[in-house]
Amino acid sequence: MADTYFLNFRGPAGAVCSPYLLKGDGATSPPDVSVVPWSEVRDTVSGKNILFFTHGFNVSYQGGAQSLELVCRYLRLSSSYLFIGMLWPGDGGVPFLDYPWEGGPAMDSGRQLAAFCNQWCTGAQSLSFASHSLGARMVLQGVTGLSRRASLLCLMAGAINRDCLTTQYSSAAVKCDRVAVLASHEDDVLKLAFPPGDAIADQVYHDHTLQGALGYDGPPPPATSVQSPWQIANGENFGHLDYLPPTDNNKWEWAADFVRRNLYGQPLIWPR
Predict the structure, then answer these.
(1) What pLDDT is recorded for position 211?
(2) What is the DSSP letter of 267?
(3) How many Cβ atoms sit within 10 Å of the Cβ of residue 222?
(4) What is the rounded CA–CA span in Å between residue 58 and residue 142?
(5) Fewer CB within 10 Å: C terminus or N terminus of the chain?
(6) Which pLDDT score is estimated for 91?
(7) What percent of the chain has pLDDT above 70?
(8) Which residues of 88-121 are buried (b: 16+ CB within 10 A; e: fewer)?
(9) What pTM, to 2 d.p., does this model score?
C-alpha cells in the first residue's frame, strides 16, 4: 500500500505551527508516519494535481489522520493526483463548548497553508481544496492567500456563514475554477449549535455576519458560481458526522464520490 501524505499544523499545547509534510499510514494507532525531509518536498509535489483535504472542529491528531487515510484509500485518485490530508488543531480543551474560539486556529492554519503552497508547491500542476465543517474557514483563508488560482474548492457541511463566498471570502471564491458545496437540512449540529456559537464567535473575531450555516442552507441565491446541485435531499438523514469516516454507515462514501467528481470536472449525480 502506497504512503498517504499529511500536512501537519499541530504544534505544542494546541498551537498552530508552520506545517510540515508527513507520509505513512494514518489508520494505525498511533499513526505510523514519518517526516518528509524538506529537500524532498518540492519533488514530491512537482507536476502533481494536489488535493488538500481537511477535517473539521473537535478532531484529534489521531482521529484526523485515521479519517483522512480512509478517504484517501477510498478515492483511489489517478497517478497524476496527490492527496494530502491536513491535520490542524481544532480540538480545544473543552470539547464542543469552545467552538466559538476555534475559528482563530482555523484561520491561522489557513494562513500557514497559503505560505506553504506559495513556497513549496510552485511546481504543482494544480491545487484543489476540500473541507468538512469548520475546516471550511481554514481552506477559504488559505485560498485567499494563494499567489495562484485554485482548481477546486469543495466545502462540505461548512460551519461558516452561508454568504461567506460573496462577503468575507469573496476573494477566495473568485480565485477558484470550480466551487462546490454540500449542505443538509438534516444536519442538527448546524441547525441547533451553529447559530448561538456563531453569535459568540462574532464577539470574538468581529468578522461574522450572523447568517445561517453554509452547510445547512447552502449559499444564498443567485449563487451562480457554485456547482449545482448542493442540497442533500430530506429523508437521506445526512447528519454532520456522515461526511467523513469512520461512521456506522457508508454515507461518507457518497460525499467522497462528490469530491472526486468535482475534482475530475465530471457532471454531478449526487446530491439529489
Answers:
(1) 72
(2) P
(3) 8
(4) 20
(5) N
(6) 84
(7) 90
(8) bbbbbeeeeeebbbbbebbbbbbebbbbbbeebb
(9) 0.93
Provide the 10 A C-beta neighbour count for residue 230: 23
Q: Which residues of the chain, if any, have pLDDT below 70? A: 92-102, 195-210
- Going by the DSSP 8-state scheme, the letter that residue 19 receives in this structure is E
Amino acid at residue number 145: G
Which residues, listed in sequence order, are joined to residue 152 by a DSSP beta bridge?
128, 178
In angstroms, the Cα distances linking 245 to 42, 202, 210, 227, 256 are 30, 30, 30, 24, 10
63 phi, psi to nearest 5 deg:
-65, -40
Residue 87 CA to residue 59 CA, distance in Å, equals 9
Q: Collect all residues with Cβ–Cβ distance below 8 Å to 112 and sequence separation of at least 6.
A: 9, 16, 17, 18, 19
What is the rounded CA–CA span in Å between residue 266 and residue 254?
15
Where do the domains of the chain lie, and which CATH numbers do they carry? 4-263 (3.40.50.1820)
- Return the beta strands (E) in the chain as ranges: 4-10, 16-25, 32-35, 49-54, 81-87, 126-132, 150-156, 176-184, 231-232
Q: What does the pLDDT read at residue 195? A: 61
The cell for 232 is 442533500
List the one residue out of 171, 134, 136 whose CA is nearest residue 153: 136
